[in-house]
Amino acid sequence: MHRVLVIGAGGVGNVVVHKCAQNPEVFGEILLASRTRARCDAIAKTVKELQGRDIATTAVDADDVASTVALIRDYQPELLINVALPYQDLHLMDACLETGLDYLDTANYEPRDVAKFEYKWQWAYRERFERAGIMALLGSGFDPGVTNVFCAYARDNLFDEIHTVDILDCNGGDHGHPFATNFNPEINIREITQNGRYWENGQWVEIPAMSQQMVFDFPGVGERKAYLLYHEELESLVEHIPGLRRIRFWMTFGEAYITHLRVLQNVGMTRIDPVEFNGQKIIPLEFLKALLPDPASLGTGYTGKTSIGCLIEGRKDGQSKRVFIYNICDHAETFKEVRAQAVSYTTGVPAVVGAEMMLRQIWKRSGVWNMEQFDAKPFLERLGPAGLPWQVADWPT
C-alpha cells in the first residue's frame, strides 16, 4: 500500500480521490489538499458515504512552493497527483524537486497571461528530475493521456506505419444549463478561443479559431459536428510516432454553446488581460468564471454519453489499415458511482491508473515523460477495470 497526496478539489480531484479509495491495495493512505479546505471536506464526506473509506484533508496554496514543500515533508507521500490548475504545474514540480517526490499531472503548464499549449516549460525540467532520481508523468488524463496511450498501442501493436491520426472528442450529454463548461471555465474557454493548429508534412499549420469543422459518427452518440482545435498531446505525439504525416484534434460543440461563446467574445468577456473597473483591475474571463456553473456541480441530472477516441490510418503487412480506438462513458452512471459527470470521470480515472503504473513501478524512469513513451499494454489492461472500457474498431475509409 502506498501514500499519495492529491492537490486540487474540483470535479477531477473528486473523481481521483474516489477512484483511489476504491483501490486500497495500491492507495493505502490519501491526503486531499486545496486552497479551500471546505471543498476537500465535502469530497471526503462523499468518499466515506460511497466508498466506505476515510481520507485526510488539508489546505494548501499550490502557488506557494514553500507551503507545498512543508506539506510534503510533513505527510511524506510517495507521489503527488496534481489536478489543480495548469498555472500551478511548475510550482508543484519545483516542490517535488526540493523534496525528491514523484509527480503526475493531467494537463500541461500554461502561463496565466498567455493562452497557449506548450510543453517546453515542463520539458525543461528533464535533466533536473533525472539528477534528482525522480519521475514526472505529464498529461495522464484522457486527452491528453488515454489518447496518447491509444496512439502508442497502435504504433507498437496494430501498425507497421502510422500516417495520420485524428483525435476526436465528443460530449453528447445534456446538463440542462443554457451555457456551462464541463471543466474549469477559464481553461476551457482559453483553449477554444485560441487559434487552431495541426501538424502536416513536417510543419505546423495555424488556422483561425473554430474555422474548420467536420461531421463524424461517434460510437454511442451518433453524428456530431466537430471543430479543429489545438491540443497539447499533438506536440508530444509528433515527437514519438515515427513516419507521421498528419495529426489533428477535434472537439464537438452544440450550436447553443457556439452562439454563447461568440457573443461573450464579441463583448470582451473572454479577454485574459486586466481591465479597469470601478477603480480596480479585473480579468474579464476570471469574472465570467465566477458567474458560470461550477463544473463539479453539473453531475446531477446530466444525461447522455461522451465518446472519445483516435482515428488512426496507416499500413500493416503491406495493406492499408484504418481503426478507431475509443471509449464511451455515461454521465448518469458516473454520477451514481462517484458523484461526477463523465468529463471529470474520463480525466480522473486515467490519472489514477497512471499513478498506479508509477507506484507499482510498472512505469518507472527518472526524468520527465509523456504517456506514449511507455508500454501501453499494462495501462490499458487496468483502464477498463478502473471504469473506462475501450474498443478497437476497423473503420471504413
Tell me briefly what this model is.
Helix 1 runs parallel beside helix 2.
Q: What assembly state would you assign to the polypeptide chains in this entry?
A: single chain
CATH architecture of one domain: 2-Layer Sandwich
CATH topology name of one domain, in short, is Dihydrodipicolinate Reductase, domain 2
Helix-and-strand structural type: alpha/beta
Q: Radius of gyration, rounded?
A: 20 Å
Question: Taking all residues together, what is the mean pLDDT?
Answer: 92
CATH superfamily of one domain: Dihydrodipicolinate Reductase, domain 2
Helix content: 25-40%
DSSP strand (E) fraction? 25-35%
Principal-axis shape: globular
Number of helices: 14
The poorly predicted ranges are none
Number of strands: 18
Largest sheet: 9 strands, mixed
What's the level 1 CATH class of one domain?
Alpha Beta
How far the N terminus sits from the C terminus, by CA atoms, comes to 47 Å
Element layout with pairings:
Blueprint: E1 2-7, H1 11-21, E2 27-34, H2 37-51, E3 56-59, H3 65-75, E4 79-82, H4 89-99, E5 102-105, H5 120-123, H6 126-132, E6 135-138, H7 146-158, E7 161-171, H8 185-193, E8 196-200, E9 203-207, E10 213-218, E11 222-229, H9 233-240, E12 246-252, H10 255-266, E13 275-277, E14 280-282, H11 284-291, E15 305-316, E16 319-330, H12 331-338, H13 342-359, E17 367-370, H14 376-386, E18 390-394
Parallel strand pairs: 1-2, 1-4, 2-3, 4-5, 5-6, 6-17, 7-12
Antiparallel strand pairs: 7-15, 8-9, 8-12, 10-11, 11-12, 13-14, 15-16, 16-18
Helix pairs in contact: 1-2, 1-13, 3-4, 7-14, 13-14
